[in-house]
Amino acid sequence: MVKITFPDGSVREYEQGVTGFQIAESISPALARDVVSCGVNGETTELNRPINEDASIALYKFDDEEGKHTFWHTSAHLLAEALQELYPGIQFGFGPAVENGFFYDVMPAEGQTISENDFPKIEEKMRELAKKNEQVLRRDISKADAVKEFTADGQEYKVEHIVEDLEDGTISTYSQGNFTDLCRGPHLVSTGAIKAIKITSVAGAFWRGDAKREQMTRIYGITFPKKKMLDEYLVMLEEAKKRDHRKIGKEMELFMFSDRVGKGLPIWLPKGTQLRLRLQDLLRRLLRPYNYQEVITPGIGGKNLYVTSGHYAHYGKDAFQPIHTPEEDEEYMLKPMNCPHHCEIYAHKPRSYKDLPLRIAEFGTVFRYEKSGELHGLTRVRTFTQDDAHIFVRPEQVKAEFENNIDIILKVFKTFGFDNYEAQISLRDPEDKEKYIGSDDVWEESETAIKEACAEKGLQARVELGEAAFYGPKLDFMVKDAIGRRWQLGTIQVDYNLPNRFKLEYTAEDNSKKTPVMVHRAPFGSLERFTAVLIEHTAGHFPLWLTPDQIAILPISEKYNDYAHKVKAYFDAHDVRSIMDDRNEKIGRKIRDNELKRVPYMVIVGEKEAAEGLVSMRQQGGGEQATMTMEAFAERINNEVADQLKELD
């Protein structure tokens, strides 16, 4: 018998060799119908894999993240199986599950192409194969046999992957029907659970992400166990298109891109700059009780700064290449991180234990070399501004500082209506310590501090191994927006390593020299990404205190432009942000155009308003309408803004 421990701590005994599916059946037939994979001792695996020793188990349905990953992983293989039948001679690269579905990189045979026109026949073939309910069979295989089999199949990319990346004794394949793929798993037991299928897009992708290698065809798709779920997802996609921050940003004139300036380099237009500055002002307001000192550091730094910090060795390929000056051996880098500069600020004069915590904050612009195919609006760019801070503390202050920053991040989320969020503790991969710097003792101490801080704040956080930064563990916050999409925003990181590398120290109470601990934190993450998520979450309908234009003044005809200018001058003098639409257009057209710009209020002025010194107010979206004096309306706007800002304190 083996003892199986469930997530609630309960324990049951089963015969040795029991499978996850049999365990689910023993609990209830309904659970057995819904479960798609299981976690055994923290590792996601197939439901038909025998369990031969005492273990902890979690049973995953499609609704669970692990369940979705398993479902979509098998769906990627189903896509490849369909492509193999439809396109003889096609070659396969990699086909993983991703956050929303899956993709497969393929190289069609000479003379073959795959476009959107082919999506219906690919979907139909996938449905046909899924209905066969083919068993998905795992097989461990030697490296020599794997090379032999995939060479015989003409799969050159698979062979290259086996020869260059895989070690003998670690290789497995999964087969369904006539298709076999090189894969570690996990997978569904069979394909019959895949009921609803949609191929979503096709794009180009370089083999192994190397721009010097051949370009493959990347086919994206998504699947569900029920058609209703796919229908709901497609509705969400349509809503996402309407909320696309690139589209809304253009309509509201917030930001732009220019090919002449360069890919992935956003330009903030006047209205977007106003919005960005108000976001910065909000954070400054939230930080007042915590005694932060704001600094400004250069956008470049000497290469040796990043060699010292470890960023050059661990992060160099993601940074822009070093800049060489006329001076021999003098090299600079565009700043990829703010933290090395802040370490130098700490080190520029002696520090005492009385000086700590020392909180250094900066809206620091950094530069990362994102591949052109991965750039996307404001969410993936090559330069962005972090709402960054580095707090230098004594070891006994780490937990309290961590808790303070949890409070700040949750306050930001509450302010913008991000009520649906989850926290993730990202730890070092204990099986691959070469990726990280620092001793085991330092990592254990910092990881324990994060776990204890979350527990004391009552913050439920899931743990992910291998997701830590190279210098320390972190706590990341993922928010779900108004239509259920997941975004990574705020982050807090504990770092015992950079202070050591920079030889930072403070004088302790006993006059000994000690090394401070460094806490990194960014509540927004970056102003660019946060703005993009906020646009899509609100569909561009920002709170009145934040929106660039609070009022649009619309004269009914050119005869009333002079009065409209008088109204605007009054609003300007009373801190109400207004724009005037004095185009020679019909009032209906002006209303429609300003609705598109998401201006919260419109003020319409005509003969009556001009004669009596009034304004006719109309809320965005055809809401409340009323006529009042411009004085009364300005007071209303200012009171509404004051009430909103009061809630932030």
Automatic annotation (TrEMBL):
<keyword id="KW-0479">Metal-binding</keyword>
<dbReference type="InterPro" id="IPR002320">
    <property type="entry name" value="Thr-tRNA-ligase_IIa"/>
</dbReference>
<dbReference type="InterPro" id="IPR004154">
    <property type="entry name" value="Anticodon-bd"/>
</dbReference>
<dbReference type="InterPro" id="IPR012947">
    <property type="entry name" value="tRNA_SAD"/>
</dbReference>
<dbReference type="Pfam" id="PF03129">
    <property type="entry name" value="HGTP_anticodon"/>
</dbReference>
<dbReference type="InterPro" id="IPR036621">
    <property type="entry name" value="Anticodon-bd_dom_sf"/>
</dbReference>
<keyword id="KW-0862">Zinc</keyword>
<dbReference type="Pfam" id="PF02824">
    <property type="entry name" value="TGS"/>
</dbReference>
<dbReference type="GO" id="GO:0000049">
    <property type="term" value="F:tRNA binding"/>
</dbReference>
<dbReference type="InterPro" id="IPR002314">
    <property type="entry name" value="aa-tRNA-synt_IIb"/>
</dbReference>
<keyword id="KW-0067">ATP-binding</keyword>
<keyword id="KW-0547">Nucleotide-binding</keyword>
<dbReference type="GO" id="GO:0046872">
    <property type="term" value="F:metal ion binding"/>
</dbReference>
<dbReference type="InterPro" id="IPR047246">
    <property type="entry name" value="ThrRS_anticodon"/>
</dbReference>
<feature type="binding site">
    <location>
        <position position="339"/>
    </location>
    <ligand>
        <name>Zn(2+)</name>
    </ligand>
</feature>
<dbReference type="GO" id="GO:0006435">
    <property type="term" value="P:threonyl-tRNA aminoacylation"/>
</dbReference>
<dbReference type="GO" id="GO:0004829">
    <property type="term" value="F:threonine-tRNA ligase activity"/>
</dbReference>
<keyword id="KW-0694">RNA-binding</keyword>
<dbReference type="GO" id="GO:0005737">
    <property type="term" value="C:cytoplasm"/>
</dbReference>
<dbReference type="InterPro" id="IPR012676">
    <property type="entry name" value="TGS-like"/>
</dbReference>
<feature type="domain" description="TGS">
    <location>
        <begin position="1"/>
        <end position="61"/>
    </location>
</feature>
<keyword id="KW-0963">Cytoplasm</keyword>
<comment type="subunit">
    <text>Homodimer.</text>
</comment>
<feature type="binding site">
    <location>
        <position position="520"/>
    </location>
    <ligand>
        <name>Zn(2+)</name>
    </ligand>
</feature>
<dbReference type="InterPro" id="IPR045864">
    <property type="entry name" value="aa-tRNA-synth_II/BPL/LPL"/>
</dbReference>
<feature type="domain" description="Aminoacyl-transfer RNA synthetases class-II family profile">
    <location>
        <begin position="244"/>
        <end position="555"/>
    </location>
</feature>
<feature type="binding site">
    <location>
        <position position="390"/>
    </location>
    <ligand>
        <name>Zn(2+)</name>
    </ligand>
</feature>
<keyword id="KW-0030">Aminoacyl-tRNA synthetase</keyword>
<dbReference type="InterPro" id="IPR012675">
    <property type="entry name" value="Beta-grasp_dom_sf"/>
</dbReference>
<dbReference type="Pfam" id="PF07973">
    <property type="entry name" value="tRNA_SAD"/>
</dbReference>
<dbReference type="InterPro" id="IPR004095">
    <property type="entry name" value="TGS"/>
</dbReference>
<dbReference type="GO" id="GO:0005524">
    <property type="term" value="F:ATP binding"/>
</dbReference>
<dbReference type="InterPro" id="IPR033728">
    <property type="entry name" value="ThrRS_core"/>
</dbReference>
<keyword id="KW-0820">tRNA-binding</keyword>
<dbReference type="Pfam" id="PF00587">
    <property type="entry name" value="tRNA-synt_2b"/>
</dbReference>
<keyword id="KW-0436">Ligase</keyword>
<protein>
    <recommendedName>
        <fullName>Threonine--tRNA ligase</fullName>
        <ecNumber>6.1.1.3</ecNumber>
    </recommendedName>
</protein>
<comment type="similarity">
    <text>Belongs to the class-II aminoacyl-tRNA synthetase family.</text>
</comment>
<keyword id="KW-0648">Protein biosynthesis</keyword>
<dbReference type="InterPro" id="IPR006195">
    <property type="entry name" value="aa-tRNA-synth_II"/>
</dbReference>
<dbReference type="InterPro" id="IPR018163">
    <property type="entry name" value="Thr/Ala-tRNA-synth_IIc_edit"/>
</dbReference>
